[in-house]
Amino acid sequence: MEGGWSLHLPVLARIHDRVQDMFLHTAGLLDDSTGKEAQPIPRQGKVSADRVAQYLQEELKCDTITEVPRNDTDYDMEIDHGAFIWELETTSPTITDVNLKVKRGMKVAICGMEKYQKVIQACALTKDLELFANGDLTEIGERGINISGGQKQRIQIARSVYQDADIYLFDDPFSAVDAHTGGQLFKDCLMGMLKDKTILYVTHQVEFLPAADLILVMQGGKIVEKGTFDDLLKQNIGFEAIVGAHSQAIESVINAESSSRILSTDRNNLENSDNEFEKENDTGYQLQGIIKQESAHDASHRINEKGRLTQDEEREKGGIGKKVYWAYLVAVHGGALAPTLDKCQLGDIVRQSPKKLDSTVVENGENWSVGQRQLFCLGRVLLKRSNILVLDEATASVDSSTDAIIQQTLREEFGDCTVLTVAHRIHTVIDSDLIFVFSEGRIIEYNTPSRLLEDGKSEFSRLIKDYSRRSKGF
After folding, report:
1. So what's the pLDDT on residue 170?
2. pLDDT tier, 434 (very low <50, low <70, confident <90, very high otherwise)
3. Distance between CA 242 and CA 234 in Å, rounded?
4. If residue 8 lies in a helix (H) or strand (E), which one and from where to where?
5. pLDDT tens digits, residue range 17-63?
6. Average pLDDT over residues 178-182
7. 171 vs 120, 176, 203, 232, 416, CA distance in Å?
8. 54-68, 268-282, 343-357, 415-429: which range is least confident on average?
9. Mean pLDDT of 223-239
10. How much is the pLDDT for 124?
11. Residue 91: how many CB atoms within 10 A of its CB?
């Protein structure tokens, strides 16, 4: 304990006397009830009382404590800039900067939200709560219908961390957050607030594996490999394929970033060679900036006009047309479904199932993993062959190698289609024709990937840097 505090002198003596009286009283009860000689018990009680009193005196007596006679003060306790720790090996105090005066007879209640605020910060929820109309009192709908997937994950993590359990199980906790937020969660939460806890975390994001003390590689519902990150790479029995796919994804991002820098340098050289061209080019950039700002403002205005963060859930009743069922039936009997399943990496899973194509999919796909549900959705998309395709975190819960295959399939099968992709995995959107960057529900920038990367201060460039930094070493 640091700082200083005062206690009136009789306190320690009364502690000793009360503890000793308790033991002697207990000994007397035993003597009366048994009728046997109980003299050793009072003697043992006195020894115990002395030990307890000595322990308390050692805890309280130090250079920072001043004992004041009871008659010289109206206060039973006074603490001046006190700092307290519960364990001697702890480097930082648990409670700091305590200033308190307690008058004789006062009843002092202690409460606080320090832990709550630390959890909110560690789980990257500070901004989200600021945006919610009612802050942390905002009502969350069934299955989190009124919040994003990333917010669901972080709120669930925050709830578990606040419980202060001994063992934590996290199932794919970083799949719906961007590179920056994922890195903060891993550093401040898993490796920070929970650094002394036992944690089992399921993840398809390879960049979070090297920090693990033990890695279990699952395949077909079984553990096929286990060891540290370096050990698994040396064994050369499959784990390196997962890491290799991740390395290729990183390489695609780095190549895009490097190409943008080269284009930016070439453009600057051309501009410097012709002053007149430079003036025209500057004017063009200014006009483009004005157009971008107006478009972003209009988009934000439309969002604010049409909806709120939370709104009443609307349900519609109706039937699915016969044409939809007929299309699926024709696909099944025509043999189109089998290659379609292989393209979305579900072929082997379905063939190994006892019921094959008759396998049951319950409501919300609860009897399949999240990654398998995503692959089923992709299979349906491949069957329907729409001209406009919207992919919302379509591969967030699959491993890097499966993701790479799916991305290639999408490029081949939907090369002539309009595709809108919502994703936090940078490499899945790096080759898009146009990128919209959202923050706090608003479009803050949009352009081609190369243009966004040319601006080192753009939000997209920051995301790329965070992703590259988090994945360095692969």
Report:
1. 94
2. very high
3. 13
4. strand 2-8
5. 554 555 455 445 444 444 444 445 556 666 766 766 665 566 555 66
6. 85
7. 20, 12, 7, 22, 36
8. 268-282
9. 86
10. 93
11. 6
* Distance set, CA 78 to CA 6, 10, 12, 56, 288 (Å): 5, 15, 16, 18, 66
- Alpha-carbon gap, residue 340 to 359, rounded angstroms: 16
C-alpha–C-alpha distance, residues 429 and 433, integer Å: 9
Note the pLDDT of residue 113.
Answer: 80
Q: Reply yes or no on whether the pLDDT at 296 is more than 60.
A: no
H/E element, 256:
helix 239-273
DSSP string, 133-163: TTGGGPPP-GGGTTS-HHHHHHHHHHHHHHT
Higher pLDDT, 280 or 440: 440
Q: Which two tokens stand for residue 56?
A: 């308390």
Alpha carbons within 13 A on the beta-carbon side of 351: 9
Cβ neighbour number for residue 298 with a 10 Å cutoff: 11
Up-side HSE of residue 400: CA atoms within 13 Å toward CB?
A: 24
Q: Cα-flanking dihedrals φ and ψ of residue 44, to 5°?
A: -65, -35
Q: Are 334 and 327 in contact (CB under 8 A)?
A: no
Helix (H) or strand (E) holding 391: strand 388-392
Widest distance between CA atoms in the chain: 114
Q: How far apart are CA 377 and CA 392, in angstroms?
A: 11
Contacts of 13 (CB under 8 A, 6+ apart): none
For residues 19 and 47, give the distance between their C-alpha atoms in angstroms, rounded to a whole number.
11
DSSP H/E element including 53: helix 40-60
Count the neighbouring beta carbons within 10 Å of the beta carbon of residue 381. Answer: 20
Tokens read off for 329: 């039936």
Q: Strand, coil or helix: what is 240?
A: helix
* 415: its two tokens: 């090369």
Q: Quote the pLDDT of residue 275.
A: 56
Helical H runs in 163-238? 179-184, 229-235
64, 7 contact by CB (below 8 A):
no
**Torsions phi, psi for 288 (to 5 deg):** -65, -40
SS3 readout for 289-357: HHHHHHHHHHHHHHHHHHCCCCCCCCCCCCCCCHHHHHHHHHHHHCCCHHHHHHHCCCHHHHHHCCCHH
Q: What is the mean pLDDT of residues 355-375?
A: 87
Give the angle 13-1-197 at the CA atoms, nearest 5°.
120
Q: How crowded is residue 350: how many other Cβ atoms within 10 Å of its Cβ?
A: 18
What digits encode the pLDDT tens for the residues 117-129?
999 999 999 999 9
Of 192, 131, 130, which Cα lies nearest the Cα of 157?
A: 192
- What backbone phi and psi angles, to 5 degrees, belong to 421? -115, 125
Two tokens at 292?
């971008």
Give the bridge partners for 4, in sequence order. 80
